Amino acid sequence: MKKTRSKLTILTAVTVAIVAILFFSIDNFGNPGGSNWKVPGVAKKLKNPVPSSKLSIKLGEKLFVQNCATCHGESGVGDGPVGKFLGKKVADLTSKAVQSQVDGVIFYKLTKGRAPMPSYKTILNTKQRWSVINYIRTLKSN
Predict the structure, then answer these.
(1) Does residue 108 share a domain with residue 86?
(2) With bands split at pLDDT 50, 70 and 90, how would you rate the model's confidence at 11?
(3) Are residues 94 and 129 in the same domain?
(4) CATH no. for residue 48?
(5) Degrees (nearest 5) of the Cα angle 115, 102, 29?
(6) What SS3 state is found at 94?
(7) Cβ of 33: how many Cβ atoms within 10 Å?
(8) 133 touches 115 (CB < 8 A)
(9) What are phi and psi of 117, to 5 degrees?
(10) Rg, Å, the chain Cα set
(11) 5, 38, 43, 126: which has the fewest C-beta neighbours closer than 10 Å?
């Protein structure tokens, strides 16, 4: 009976692991860049209340380096040292696809997160998140 219980425990653990892997990879199936991120219409209408000033951009850069560069890279192209281990292509923040998104969409994504990107709602306050967006707007593709 003890052997049966051990086998059942191992089988359960393996099943849970497989389901978890499938769950976290299904969003990426056929969509390596994760570009089908559903954003509510109300988020698309949000306007950045933090003026894009030298101070805001400097704050945004500091927060970006501390919180985002490990995945998105120092220049925002998605080449951070951790990014290659995530199993998903990290967004190139300098790309036309990202830079053409309205501020509210980026704010929504930064606030809500989506695996493997964390939610920054409790990590950065509202003003800080908008400042990160002001900094992202300064990133240019090479």
Answers:
(1) yes
(2) low
(3) yes
(4) 1.10.760.10
(5) 30
(6) coil
(7) 15
(8) no
(9) -75, 130
(10) 19
(11) 38
**Is the Cβ–Cβ distance between 93 and 76 less than 8 Å?**
yes
- Structural domain contains residue 72: yes
- Domain carrying residue 4: 1-30
Q: How many CA atoms lie within 13 A of 75 on its CB side?
A: 7
pTM score: 0.74
Task: Output DSSP code: residue 84.
Answer: G
Same-domain status, 4 and 61? no
Residues 77 and 40 in one domain: yes
Length, in residues, of the chain:
142
Shared domain for 90 and 131, answered yes or no, is yes
Rounded to whole angstroms, how far apart are CA atoms 83 and 48? 27
User: Measured between alpha carbons, how far is 25 from 43 in angstroms, rounded to an integer?
Assistant: 25
- Rounded to 5°, the CA angle 64-65-66 comes to 90
Tokens (6 digits) for 44: 């698309």
Confidence of residue 74 (pLDDT cuts 50, 70, 90): very high
Same domain, 19 and 76: no
Is residue 90 located within the same domain as residue 122?
yes
Contact 71, 83 (CB under 8 A): yes
